[in-house]
Amino acid sequence: MKIINSYFEEVHHIESHFFSDTRGVFLKAFDKNTSVFKDYVIQQSNYVHTKEKYTLRGMHFQKEEFAEAKFFRVVQGKAQIGFVDVSGSKESESLKSGSIVLNNPKESVFIPKGYATGYLTLEPDTVVLYFSDNIYQPDSESGILWNDSRINISWESQSPILSQKDKLW
Ligand SMILES: Cc1cn([C@H]2C[C@H](O)[C@@H](COP(=O)(O)OP(=O)(O)O[C@H]3O[C@H](C)C(=O)[C@H](O)[C@H]3O)O2)c(=O)[nH]c1=O
């Protein structure tokens, strides 16, 4: 696995080396020997199938000791992975933020603790598999509205499908 691009020196766009032969493709989906993961301990892995294009899940984070570093891979379809630094002052005029489009299982995105995460699907039947280094703790869950004026992400849809929860952050 190698880092092909980084944002704020801590959000990493990663590419996995892959082996292909007449049977298909083999790629290493997680490698503890990659520098980013030397202290990363997977506590949870989530498989999420989203039916409709332009569905946005996010932006979510868990507070304090339940904060999560997440590692996303789009195993089918296409998605714009968003990240927002929520570690600073709530009074900030703008928040460090960005997005990476994934449409190839050979690529993945690592987002450290201190960020809200989410993604906008760009094709129907998009499947995202992601790891977290913390347990799910609903009472610690928080979020930020996907189009909060302090966020600098150019989402590919301005009228996404949202859960009730995600409409109300
Ligand atoms: C995250 C999570 C959820 N759930 C349950 C809670 C709900 O009954 C159901 C759906 O949860 P939610 O609507 O929060 O799922 P998403 O909208 O896909 O949000 C997730 O995806 C975005 C990208 C995130 O960054 C978070 O990791 C996560 O919140 O799964 C669990 O049982 N365990 C879990 O770890």
UniProtKB/TrEMBL annotation:
The active site is at residues 60, 130. One of its GO terms (biological process) is polysaccharide biosynthetic process. Its EC number is 5.1.3.13. This is dTDP-4-dehydrorhamnose 3,5-epimerase. InterPro entries: RmlC-like, RmlC-like_jellyroll, RmlC_Cupin_sf. GO terms for molecular function: dTDP-4-dehydrorhamnose 3,5-epimerase activity. It catalyses: dTDP-4-dehydro-6-deoxy-alpha-D-glucose = dTDP-4-dehydro-beta-L-rhamnose. It is an enzyme of class 5 (isomerase). It comes from Flammeovirga aprica JL-4. It comes from the Bacteria.
